[in-house]
Specification:
about 160 residues; alpha+beta; 6-stranded antiparallel β-sheet; about 45% helix; globular
Amino acid sequence: MNDAVRRSCILLEEVLSHSPAFQRIDKTFFVVRQGSAYVYIMVVDWGNDRALVRFVAQLARGVDLSPDLAMKLLRLNARMRFGAFGFVRDGACVTFGHTLLGGEGLGEAEVLATLRDVALIADEYDDQIIEEAGGQTMQQLLEESALKALQSELEHKGWREA
């Protein structure tokens, strides 16, 4: 891990750790829940002395990406002041992300503005995408996963649905 990555991670923790929505997953990977959106923040080496700070929100998984939806997302990309929509084939996931240059030039205001905007865009467009192309929001997926885990635990302990 180079110095720019270290500085970026320290700043992220200083700026975000007071929020109950913030969670550090490992040294360079963080998650912040904002509304129904989960914003993943990854700090990565970029050469020997630079870092990139990537903010990515998964808007919906299990999406049927039609040519029409792809064109709508591209048109939206052209109008965004920063960031871009993307599609990850594995999981059929629509994302929105933006990348900042990390290191000593990274500032608190820039981190907070990026986090806020990525979360707002994700929260605004996730339901629209699902309505048009199916799938589930990250919040729905996590709630479903938590419910399945609870049901499994109850069954394991001998509790059954009536």
